[in-house]
Design a protein that fits this description.
The chain has 368 residues and is an alpha/beta fold. The chain has a single domain, classed as TIM Barrel, CATH 3.20.20. Helix content is 38%, strand content 12%. Strands 1, 2, 3, 4, 5, 6, 7 and 8 form an eight-stranded parallel β-sheet that branches. The two termini are 17 Å apart. The structure holds 5'-deoxyadenosine (5AD) and FE2/S2 (inorganic) cluster (FES). The site of FE2/S2 (inorganic) cluster has 9 residues, from loops. GO terms for molecular function: 4 iron, 4 sulfur cluster binding; metal ion binding; transferase activity. It holds the Pfam family Radical_SAM. It comes from Candidatus Geothrix skivensis.
Amino acid sequence: MSSAEWADGASRAPGPPGFDLDHAGLKAWLQEDDPARLELLWMEADRVRKARVGDAVHLRGLIEVSSHCVRHCLYCGLRAPTVELERFRMEADEILACAQEAHRLGYGSVVLQAGEDPGLTKAFITEVVRAIKGDTPLAVTLSLGERDDEELREWKAAGADRYLLRFETTDPVLYRRIHPNLPGVPSDRFAQLQRMRTMGYEIGTGVMVGIPGQTWDTLASDILRFREFDMDMIGVGPFLPSPRTPLGGQGVAAFLAAPSDQVPNDELTTLKAVALTRLVCPDSNIPSTTALATLDQARGRELGLLRGANVVMPNVTPVHYRIRYEIYPGKACVNETAEACQDCLDGRIRSLGRSLGKGPGGRSSRAM
Ligand code: 5AD
Ligand code: FES
């Protein structure tokens, strides 16, 4: 059954019985604070997760391949104007070594993530993707920002399987405010997501919860957009202010929505958004994000997995680079080696009665 089949015409809005998941319903659930109602939401999200994607938690090794970035996104610590950051770009053999480590640790896939870095050329990424695919059985996900179709096609041909590009918000005014355009570089992430799908990528996207200027209406629309696009992977984590950015300092007040409308960047709201995302996209891969684990170092990872998530992205970047990839401060696990992270996660996942996923863990129900 596809998510659309949940809709039974005029009698009720799409969603499992008792859950109206149209715009008004999502907005009401996002603002719900009755513990008994929330308990229903958690149970339903966990039930749907188990029924549709099972108990396996898929691990994706995250390799932060470059902290260079030409963009000026107002929320991101890697933005070009941040001068006090010591930037790095990994060599091809270093990236391959990380991928081999991920394979050795039993992960089914790796995610190569970076700021928007023209220094990661078409030829360089092609070489790296070929090397990883030639040397390991890993699925390869790219998360390199907004790139040309020609590059995207070549990387797909070299063996890349998936691409992650968060659309960040469905509100076009907010989008433009937080993503100042570079002259001559238009930004349309929805269009890129569409094009990548036709190229054969599995596509992933997501938003931050509580970005200044995000209203309840916006977040409800964001979640509906996940369904409209039938996204394969959906990352939903809290916005964490970075003091190096315009949205982390004193000036942030100018960006906030009216007090009753501004979505808070807290754990509870994030968990509601994760749970609702599972209900509207029952078959998607949904990570329990590092941002959530950073906000609640004790229980964040587990709570994400208990409220709809089925993926974790442990960091396999060498520690000396990882500490310099500072999108926001205090990132969870930043000083752990890949091995230590693996042991810790293994324990956390098993403590929930869940198992570690085997193989690439792709979206199974879509013919790609
Ligand atoms: N807090 C939380 N998440 C952030 N991201 C970027 N900056 C922040 C922040 N300050 C997220 C964005 C981006 C992804 C790689 O990290 O959603 O797409
Ligand atoms: Fe680097 Fe936006 S600031 S991708």
